[in-house]
Each structure stands twice: as C-alpha cells, then as structure tokens.
Write a structure and sequence with these properties.
Blueprint lengths: L1 H12 L21 E5 L2 E4 L4 E4 L14 H11 L10 H13 L5 E5 L2 H16 L3 E5 L12 E2 L6 E2 L1 E2 L6 H4 L2 E4 L4 H11 L3 E6 L15 H12 L2 E5 L11 H6 L5 E4 L10 E5 L1 H4 L18 H16 L2 H22 L5 E5 L2 E5 L8 H4 L4 H13 L2 E2 L8 E2 L10
Parallel strand pairs: 3-16, 5-9, 5-10, 10-11, 11-12
Antiparallel strand pairs: 1-2, 2-3, 4-13, 6-8, 7-9, 12-13, 14-15, 15-17
Helix pairs in contact: 2-10, 3-10, 6-7
Bound molecules: pyridoxal-5'-phosphate.
The site of pyridoxal-5'-phosphate has 15 residues, from helix 4.
Length: 410
C-alpha cells in the first residue's frame, strides 16, 4: 500500500524515514502509517483509511484536528506575513493568557519547543542559584538537551548516566536521577548534595513513562525541601499545562513552582514552547539580565495566533468537565473489556490523558511502569489500528482525548 511505499522512499532521505524516532513504529513493529490529513477526532492516511485519533499529535491537539476557529485565525494571520523578527502584539496577548491561567508565572519567554523550554529553565535556575546540580526523576522526560538526557542507574540516587551516545558523561554528571514518588530518595538527595542543588525538575503528573500520578505528599515534599535548601522547583508542564486543568497540574494540586515549562497545547498545533515563573528569577534573562537565550522564530506570530485561539476556546467553555467525562467513559469501557478478557491491566488516568499498562501491580514509577508487557501492548496497538483506532505506537506514552471526540467515537 501507499504508506509502505512512502516509508521506503522516506528512508532513502531521512534516517529511519522519520524526524522523531517513535514515529517509526519500531517498538510496536510494522511500518508507520503516513497521514494525509486530520479532521476533528480523525486521522486520514494516504491509503484512504480513517482512524479515531487518541494520539493527538502527542498532546497538543486538545481541540482535535483543524478546529475551524484556529484554522480561520491562522489563515488570516499568515496572509499578513508569517515571521518578522520584531515584537508583535500577539506575544503579549499570549503571555497575558498564560500569566492569568497560571499565577505562579509572572513573566514568560516563548521558544519553539518543549526541549528549549526545559533546557533554558535549567540554565536560568543555575544562574539564579549559582549552583550546578539538577535533580530529575527516572522516567520523566524534559526534552533531548544533553544535560537532561540522563536516566537512573540501578539502585538509589545515581549520578546521571547519559542515555545516548554523543552526550559526554561530563554533561550529565551534574544531573542527579532518583525514582518518582519516592520521598526517601528525595530526602537523601538533599542530605547528600544539600547546597549544590540548583533545581528539582519534575513532571507534576508524569506522561513520559506512560501516565503516572504523583502520590499524596510527593509534590508537597519536593516543594518544601527546595524551599528549605534554597533550590528552585521547576514544573515541566509541557503535557499537563492546559491539559489536566486550565491552570495545569499546579492548580489541581495547589502547589506552585518557581519556574514552569510549557509546550504542546500552548502552540495550538504549531511549534511553541515557553518557560516562565517568578519575576525576580525571570528578570535575569537577557536583555534585562545576563542569562542568554534567543530564537529566530521564537514567539512566531502564526504559532502565537494558533495558541491564543486555542487557549481562548479552552477558557470560554466548560471543557475540562466534558473532557473528563469522555475520558472516564472510555477508560471504563477499556477496563471492562480487559476484565472480560481476563487480562491484567492498570489504567492510569489524569483527566483526558491516560495509559493502559499490561501488568498486575499498580504503576507508580519507572520501575513499575517497565513491568508492563510491551509485547502485549504491541499486539493491542496493532489490533486497535486494524479496527480503525490510533493509539500511541509505544507503551510508555500517554493517550489523549480531545473535545472533538464524540460519544460515538468513545
Ligand atoms: C514533549 C515534552 C517535552 C519536549 O517537548 P518538544 O516540543 O518535543 O521538544 C518536554 N517535557 C515534557 C514533559 C514533554 O512531554
């Protein structure tokens, strides 16, 4: 079929035929489906097949594909030019929307990806504290910048070991990796490194080892220890911002970080990232302060327009209740079906994001997530695909529901 031909051709020019590794279906087997267009809750491939889309472009598409209001606003904007390299009103409008939604953000800087947002937030935290060490949690993903591409070794707190060749150990040696939802490990890391820790970066609801919720007290503890030891707390809300609530996970748990990273939904389907937080910290960014970070297409007016329109829609309607109901109904159906089939699953869900793990024990961190039977997941994925339902082509990812999904889709 056409997807196979296109994939073969793509591999002649692109490494592995893709621009982001997980798109290649390597972990679930088979060859990727080439998409021609998206409409509402549906993906249409190059062979004329239609799928109900629970991938949602990995998170941004909370309104579904090609929302008429977003399309119209973007069309109107792009006719007047697509990039100026000079300030536009759209950036201020967008910044205002973000600061109003998340009161912990007093100043915000736009970049072009979540990777840039996390990388820059770390640079700023180090500059502000004059310290170097960064604590991250195993299974949390903060983009592919060198220093954050570290994972846990076996056992307790480890010095960061690079997860990729090409990342010198020296560049991850200041990254300390500890298990998620583990208060003893957090306590210990501050005992061991006390005044060397510049920041703790965390996904307040994890989405990148599959969905894993913070256990009671976990975020509270990180907040209080960072305050006690003078380290900054960075919430990576690239997935959860405007997804689990309009104000992000921080508004759900009522715990406020010093800096927040955003991406995905804030771009309305275009490449946008953002980081922001306390005014006194953000004022260290150039041109106000000495910390350098820049971007040719940062705050791109077309992307800002898509973001403004998306956030405006999310703000206007009672969308989060609706998303939660849809999501709860879908998840209930999946659990019932698994029960009938006598299949052990764990279904972790936070609002409209969820993951099906094929394992008996509750999934609370990276170690328990990796107990999931990924071969069963691969079978599940392909069976669903053949039935016209598109789930993430990898186990350790979140599936997403959008406002465009109808009761019939669910
Ligand atoms: C997707 C993601 C990133 C990276 O964003 P990109 O736009 O892919 O660079 C960072 N942090 C989290 C939590 C993410 O889910």
């Amino acid at each position: 079929n056409r997807s196979k031909q296109l994939f073969e051709e793509a591999q002649r020019y692109l490494p592995g035929g893709v621009d982001s590794p997980v798109r290649a279906f390597k972990v679930v087997g088979g060859t990727p489906i080439f998409i021609r267009r998206g409409q509402g809750p549906s993906l249409h491939d190059e062979d004329g097949n239609e799928f109900i889309d629970y991938l949602g472009s990995w998170g941004p598409l909370i309104l579904g594909h090609a929302h008429p209001r977003v399309v119209k606003a973007v069309q109107k904007m792009v006719e007047g030019g697509s990039s100026f390299g000079a300030p536009t009103e759209m950036e201020t409008t967008m910044a205002k929307l973000i600061c109003e939604a998340m009161p912990s953000i007093e100043l915000v800087r736009f970049v072009s990806s979540g990777t840039e947002a996390a990388m820059s937030a770390i640079r700023l935290a180090r500059a502000f504290t004059g310290r170097n060490k960064v604590v991250k949690f195993a299974g949390c993903y903060h983009g592919h910048s060198d220093g954050l591409l570290a994972k846990a070794g076996p056992g307790m707190a480890t010095l960061g070991i690079p997860s990729s060749p090409g990342v010198p150990a020296a560049l991850t040696s200041d990254t300390l990796v500890i298990p998620y939802n583990n208060p003893e490990a957090v306590e210990q890391i501050f005992k061991d490194f006390a005044s060397d820790v510049a920041a703790v970066i965390v996904e307040p609801i994890a989405g990148n080892m599959g969905v894993v919720l913070p256990q009671h007290g976990f975020l509270e503890q990180i907040r209080s220890l960072t305050l006690r030891y003078g380290a900054l707390l960075i919430f990576d809300e690239v997935i959860t911002g405007f997804r689990v609530a309009y104000g992000g996970a921080q508004s759900l748990y009522n715990i406020y970080p010093d800096l927040t990273c955003l991406g995905k939904i804030v771009g309305g389907g275009f490449p946008v990232g953002a980081y922001g937080g306390r005014r006194d910290i953000m004022e260290m960014m150039a041109p106000l302060g000495p910390v350098y970070q820049a971007g040719t297409l940062a705050g791109n007016p077309v992307a800002m327009t898509a973001g403004i329109e998306t956030l405006s829609i999310l703000k206007e309607l009672k969308v989060y209740e609706e998303l939660d109901q849809k999501s709860s109904r879908l998840v209930k159906g999946i659990v019932e079906a698994a029960c009938k089939a006598r299949r052990d699953i764990q279904l972790n869900r936070a609002g409209s994001m969820f993951t099906i793990f094929f394992t008996k024990e509750p999934v609370t961190d990276y170690a328990t997530a990796t107990k999931s039977d990924t071969e069963v997941y691969a079978k599940f994925f392909h069976k669903m695909l053949s039935l016209g339902v598109y789930f993430p082509p990898a186990q350790f990812e979140a599936a997403f529901i959008s406002l465009a999904h109808t009761d019939k889709d669910i």
